[in-house]
Amino acid sequence: MTIPEIESQIINEFAMFDDWIDKYNYLIDLGKSLPEVDEQYKTDQYLISGCQSKVWLQAYMKEGKVCFNGESDAIITKGIVNLLIRVLSNQTAEDIIQAKLEFIDQIGLKEHLSPTRSNGLGSMIRQMKLYATVFKMKGA
Amino acid sequence: MNFNIEQIRADFPILQRKIYNRELVYFDNGASTQKPRQVIDAIRKYYESDNCNIHRGVHHLSVVATEAYEETRKLVRDFIHAQNTSEIIFTKGATESLNLVASSFGKKYVGAGDEVITTIMEHHSNFVPWQMMCAERGATLRIAGINGRGELDLAEIEGMMNEKTRIVAIAHVSNVLGTINPVKEIIAMAHRHGIPVLLDGAQGVSHLPVDVQDLDCDFYCFSGHKMYAPMGTGVLYGKEKYLEEMPPYQLGGEMIRDVFVDHTTFNELPYKFEAGTPNVEGVAGLHAAIVYLNGIGMANIAHYEDQLVEYATGKLSELQGIRIYGTASHKASLVSFLIGNIHPYDAGMIIDKMGIAVRTGHHCAMPLMDFLKIPGTVRASFAFYNTKGEIDQLITAIRKVQEMFG
After folding, report:
1. 3.90.1310.10, 3.90.1150.10, 3.90.550.10, 3.40.640.10: which CATH number matches B41-294?
2. B377 to chain A nearest CA, in Å?
3. Is B362 within 8 Å of A52 when comparing Cβ atoms?
4. CB B404 to CB A28 under 8 A?
5. Do residue A24 and residue B345 have CB atoms under 8 angstroms apart?
6. Residue B309: which residues within 8 A CB-CB, separation 6 or more?
7. What is the pLDDT of residues A28-67, one digit of tens each?
8. Phi and psi (nearest 5°) for A72?
9. Where along chain A do its domains lie?
10. B377: nearest CA in chain A?
11. Quick one: CATH architecture of A3-137?
């Protein structure tokens, strides 16, 4: 699926929720179901630190596509990491670089990317695009 | 006098607003306090009828504005029971006050091989300036620890004091633990060794009556915005004998006596440390805030807030799995806690959705968080416009957090 198609899917999923409790319960479930990142990637080298919750990000190439694994020490952040990886992982470097990620605002979670840096998510998205740029330069 | 909570709450316009269609429960007073209408009106009035640069003109507005500014200086002097207005310096906040002392005192009094004493519980603004000043001047920063209740050990601190110690810089009240430090004893101890003491009063002056002569502290720093006054205002109190000797911090207009092409002489206290145009409208707001606080009485405020903290601590202790950080026998009005193993960011997000403003994270006290081995805490910090009913709402929200992350 393309990035816009996945974003649409997510927007539809979230449209089912009537109130914030259901939405956040879903986000918490997504956070709990995010696979753990291998310990070797939970080091400072892969850390995108925010002010409060930490985010670790690992990127690699597979069959011409850029793939990501990620994790956080806060569950709600993990839920959003889960969504971001669902949208951006296993896509071409160019598509990742161009992705506007409007779904975050559409599902009402824009506050999690606020510039107060209370989590690493804004930095994580920038880092994912940076990885994509580097892979592209290397001939992805 | 009658402490009328309904009247008090009505004085603060922002308490009427809704967050996510719920009434705002504002428990982030440690970060910044709300302003009563009297303070807001003072700022409006300043710009509507009194605005002018001060200390500079002979025209009427200038005289009026200057007089009002200097009246506030006297009011601050009386509020903290200082002796002279020359000891009251207006800054833009506690952080600037602390940086001023670290830099200026450091230049005058601290050299290679000297020592500065501080504690592990300090806010970054009373830690980093000393750390950097020591690094620059080849001095050592000695850091006193805390016990399991978040209290300092007087014997440990005295043990650190020696002939190389130049100053002790400590919080009056911890912004994370709520501990009211035994500052009077520490000051007496330090003075026996001939060492001056600076108090970071950012969390003190809004919750306790402060008497700098009784404490005998050598410096006391605080921010206006944490005591119901506008942002961008603050005070440095310093004993004249130190302020006279300390070199100026910022240079330029106002703080000079004469400027020649090859040298400059500096103004007398307090103006030596007030370069440039000050936040005059902020100081007008500070005036109104102090008048408002005096109207209620700091002792009455302290007594009411003690009840809030006691109530909150009791209610939190009834919940399963809550860990409270900071259980000193003398505490001011805040509670820091964690809910089981739930990350404070997660807890804070849910509590926020229930209309309650608490602060989560390291609270600008990373050394303390490292020492406690936690990523941060959830902090509910109270003011005299908060109520037990609001604390009950927080308890409901915490139960919700436990349910959602269970």
Report:
1. 3.40.640.10
2. 10
3. yes
4. yes
5. no
6. B178, B331, B332, B333, B334, B335, B382
7. 999 999 988 888 888 888 988 666 788 899 999 999 999 9
8. -145, 165
9. 3-137
10. A52
11. Alpha-Beta Complex (3.90)
